[in-house]
Amino acid sequence: MSLAASRPGETTARPAAGGPSAVTAIGVSKAFRLPHQRYSTLKERALHPFSSSTYDTLQALGDVSFDVGVGEFFGIVGRNGSGKSTLLKCLAGIYGVDSGEIRIDGRLSPFIELGVGFNPDLTARDNVMLNAIMLGLTRREARRRFDEIIEFAELQEFVDMKLKNYSSGMSVRLGFSVAIQVDADVLLVDEVLAVGDASFQRKCFDEFDRMRSERRTILFVTHDMNSVERFCDRAMLLEQGSMIALGAPDEVARGYNEVNFGQLASGGEGSELGAQLDARILKTWCENTAGERIVVAPQGETCIACIEVEFLKAIEEPLFVMSFRNEARQPIFKAHSAGQIVAGAFDAGDKATIRFSFENFLAPGRYTLTPEMAIWDPDYRLLDLRDDVAALIVEAANRSGGVADLPHRVEIERS
Fold first, then answer.
1. Which of 7, 32, 285, 336 could pair with 321 in a Cys bridge, judged by C-beta atoms 3.0 to 4.6 Å apart?
2. If residue 217 lies in a helix (H) or strand (E), which one and from where to where?
3. Using CA atoms, how far apart are residues 59 and 224, in angstroms rounded to an integer?
C-alpha cells in the first residue's frame, strides 16, 4: 500500500534483526487545519459570507521514518498529543499523508479507535459479519468464525443487541475480537485496550503472547511502559509529531519517562521536586517469586513491585515508596521503606533495585503503580516521582466487591 511518493535519497531505520519489512514509513508528515471560525449549519455560512476563513496549522507528524520487520512486536509511545494515534490512522489509510510514503506488506487489521468501523444502529451480529468481510474474510469464513469472535468477546447474551446500547467496554471486546480473528499479517492496536476490564485485558495479553509465538507483526500504542518492556522487540518515542528515539524497549521506556516527567524532575516551572535532580527512577515493574516480570498476578500469591533507581548526587538514607491506585484512581495500597529497612548511603553514579514483596490480597482489577523517592533534610523532600508508570492486573475466581480481599475466618454459632 503506497500513499505517496517517497523523496529521493530518503532512508529509514532498519529493523533490529534485519530481513524483510512488514511496515515501512519514509518521511511521513501530516498536518491539520484548525479554522478560527467554525460553521455548523448552512444558515450560519449564508449569514456570514464574508467572514474570515483563516486557520491555524497543527503539525501532527513531521518527517517520521521507521521500519518494522516481519514478525516484530513494535511499540509506539509518547505523551498525549505526540502523534501516536495519528500515525496509526495514517498506517491504516484512514488519514492520507501530506508527504512521504507508507508501505505495508500483507493484510492489515486495525484496532485503533473505539467504535471505528461499527454501525451503532446494527446489532453485534451484523457488525461482526460486516467488519470481518471488510477486513478480508469471505462470507463463508466470517460465518465460520462468528462463534469464536463472540465467545472471545464474551458477548453471547448480547449478540442481537444494537451497538448503540453497548457499553464502551463491550464495544472494545467486540472490536478486538474481530481484529484478531481475521488472520491479518499486520495488526495495529491503539491504547483503547485500557477501556476493557481486567479479565479481558488478561485475555488480550495472552493473545499477544500467542501472536508473538506465531511471528505476527504488531504495532502497539500504549502509555504502559511495563507492557512495552514485556512484549515489544523494539519501540519508538514520539514527541510533538517527531520521532526522538528508536531502539530497545527499556531504553525507549526510559526516554519516555524523561520526556513525560522531565519538567517535574528538572525543577522547571510548577515543579514539585525543587531546583536540582539528585536521584531518578529508571524503571518500574512487577515480578513473581521466580524473578519473572509479570503484568498479571493471581490473588493470594506473593507479588513483588520493583523500582530501579540511579543516584546523581551522594544521598544518605533515601526513602522509597510504591503506591497502588485502582481504575477509579483511588489510592488502595502504599508500600514504603520507612521502618522496614535502613537504606544506607549512596554515592553519585550508584544504582539500586528496590523490591517491595507483599501477599497479594488486592481485589480483582487493574492497578497502576506510582513509585517515588524522597529524603528528610530536614523536612520531607521529594527526589523523584513517576505517576502511574506501570500497571498490574489482579485475577481471582470471585469478586467480593471490596477494594481488598483479606484472609478471614467465618464461624456460625447456633443459639
1. 336
2. strand 217-221
3. 25
Q: Is the pTM of this model over 0.90?
A: no
Sign of CA dihedral 107, 112, 117, 120: positive
Q: Is 139 exposed, middle or buried (0-12, 13-18, 19+ CB in 10 A)?
A: exposed
C-alpha cell recorded at residue 159: 449478540
CA 169 to chain centre: 16
Is 153 in a helix, a strand, or coil? helix
More confident site: 266 or 282: 282
In angstroms, the CA 172 to CA 169 distance is: 5
With beta carbons less than 8 A apart as the criterion, state whether 64 and 238 touch.
yes
Q: Sorting pLDDT into bands at 50, 70 and 90, what band is 308?
A: very high
- Please work out, in degrees rounded to the nearest 5, the angle formed at the alpha carbon of residue 405 by the alpha carbons of 404 and 410: 140
Q: In angstroms, what is the C-alpha Rg of the chain?
A: 24
What is the mean pLDDT of the segment spanning 77-89?
Answer: 89
Distance spanning both ends of the chain, measured CA to CA: 78
Element (H, E) at 194: none
C-beta of residue 367 within 8 angstroms of C-beta of residue 329: no
Q: Which residues pair with 324 in a beta bridge?
A: 333, 369
Q: Which residues contact 373 (CB under 8 A, 6 or more apart)?
A: 279, 281, 309, 318, 319, 320, 321, 382, 383, 384, 385
For residue range 41-80, list pLDDT tens digits in order: 766 666 666 565 677 788 999 999 999 999 999 999 998 8
Of 91, 126, 97, 125, the closest CA to residue 111 belongs to: 91
pLDDT at residue 51, as a whole number: 60
Q: What are phi and psi of 320, to 5 degrees?
A: -125, 135
* pLDDT score at 1: 38
* Residue 195 to residue 205: CA distance in whole angstroms: 14
| Omega before 249 within 30 of 0, i.e. cis | no
Whether the pLDDT of residue 198 is over 80: the answer is no
Has residue 3 got a pLDDT over 60?
no
Grid coordinates of 168: 464502551
Give Cβ neighbours of residue 141 (< 8 Å, ≥ 6 apart).
132
In the block, cell 467480593 appears at 400
| pLDDT recorded at residue 68 | 95
